[in-house]
Amino acid sequence: MSYQTLLDAVIKGDIKTAKEETLKAVDASQNAQDILDQGLIEAMNVVGDNFSKGAIFVPQMLRSAKTMQECVEVLKPHFQENAMTTKGNIVLGTVKGDLHDIGKNLVGMMLEGAGFNIIDLGVDVAPEVFVDKIKEANADVLGMSALLSTTMPSMSLTIKALADLGLRDTVKVIIGGAPVTRKYAEDIGADSYASDAGAAVHETKKLLNIT
Amino acid sequence: MLIVGENINTSRKRIAEAVEKQDSAFIVQVAKKQADAGADFIDVNAGTFVDREAEYLCWLVKTVQDAVDLPLCLDSPSPKALSEAIKHHRGEPMINSISLEKDRFDDMLSIVTAQPCRVVALCMTETAMPVTVEDRIQAGAELINRLTVEGVALGNIYIDPLVQPVSVDTRMGNAVLGAIKTIMNDFPGVNTICGLSNISFGLPARRLINSTFLSLCILQGLSAAILDPTDKRLMANLLSTRMILGKDEYCGDFIDAYQKGIINKE
To answer: A57 in the Ramachandran plot: left (φ > 0), alpha (ψ -120 to 50) or beta?
Structure first.
């Protein structure tokens, strides 16, 4: 079955058509995981690429992400007990002392669209809170955001806390935020740096060897 | 309208390079251009250099004030960087910024009250970014009360309602505009200040959006702005908006700017 109409609807952010198409596919007894992978996630890949290229803008990206979320709600009851497979668990948050959340939220939305399971710890997240959640969720990736020069060192402290517990090699670390640079990421021993939500998806896939 | 020139900020690549190389000629040139374009204060920000922020901020203060006879807007969330930088500053600086977040208010307060200065106060709540007009008014009122109790003059307080992108939430423009209006109304004598560029994050044609937003802010009573004064179209828009709103006696500033070539012939 072709998901072209569904793909187009998600890319356009047409919630009504996308939900109808999702239902149609379910009624045609398509596998829910296939609808998710070949329809919704595939569409969000296109959206992410378009955003990275500067061909679309933040509101369009948000609209597509919202469309996908609504379709996932339609799909959820149709997954078997073994539930959805995800591409990986990502723990996300803005570091301790920092309340900025807009960029971090965009990153979370795009990663979710790309098929990852997002555990968003919100803002003002202390190193030990990150570490506990990474252990608990068996996270593949940690994404940290900081928007202030005074809170950036908390990224380094979190990485150090991971190392102290012998967990550093179990999880990839990506950082971002307006004052953060690739050089800073290298200096504190993060695995990667992302300049925006599109880049965050790209870097995450690269680190986890997902094509 | 008080203008703070925003161009000396190390989040801009060329500024970061100049600061790292201690290229004072380049920094001086950027400062002078802003002064010539009508800046009242020159903002200096070295926030991308986490470990060396204080050192670089001090260097920026000295470098800029050696060449330009203007006070500076010392831009950092770090009490350490600010208290160091103030020692090198001539005249009364603007401290950017204080907010209600847990430790930040107390740490900054001692700096702000140690010498005469102006202070930018962010409408951040203690635990989150503000969303609604009411969030901003509440934070603004508390900041004004707590600062004036400590002896800071109302006229030295610049409330920043915190501009957030309309691309993420289309209510964000009105949230700031409503807050400016109420704060200017409820606390006569206080100032309001905005950075403009956040409003257009995630959208194309950002200069157009920033410029339109500035006009609307001025309509609500905004009394200061952090912007690029070398952007001629933005300045022309600012000057004509003020004039239309009756804030430019005999249209003097507008005509001056025209005769100086800041506003181009059509």
So the answer is: beta
Q: Are residues A32 and A58 in the same domain?
A: yes
CB B3 within 8 A of CB B42: no
* pLDDT at position A179: 87
User: Is the Cβ of A197 closer than 8 Å to some Cβ of chain B?
Assistant: no
Higher pLDDT, A67 or B125: A67
Banded pLDDT at A117 (limits 50, 70, 90): very high
Mean pLDDT for back-to-back runs of 10 residues, chain B (266 residues): 96 94 98 95 93 95 97 95 96 96 87 96 91 96 97 97 96 97 98 95 95 98 96 94 96 92 79
Domain ranges of chain B: 2-259
Name the superfamily (CATH) of residues B2-259.
Dihydropteroate synthase-like (3.20.20.20)
Looking at the structure of chain A, the number of domains it has is 2
**Among B49, B167, B170, whose Cβ lies nearest the Cβ of A57?**
B167
One domain, residues A20 and A106: no
Chain B nearest CA to A170, separation (Å): 27
CA distance A154 to chain B (A): 11
For B226, list phi and psi in degrees, rounded to 5.
-100, 115
Residue found by looking up tokens 């003059």 in the block: B153
Specify whether A65 is located in the same domain as A98: no
Within 8 A of A184 by CB-CB distance, chain B residues are 48, 50
- What is the model's pLDDT at position A82? 63
CATH code (residue A11): 1.10.1240.10
Q: Does A166 touch chain B (CB under 8 A)?
A: no
Give the burial class of A103: count Cβ atoms within 10 A of its Cβ; 0-12 exposed, 13-18 middle, 19 or more buried: buried
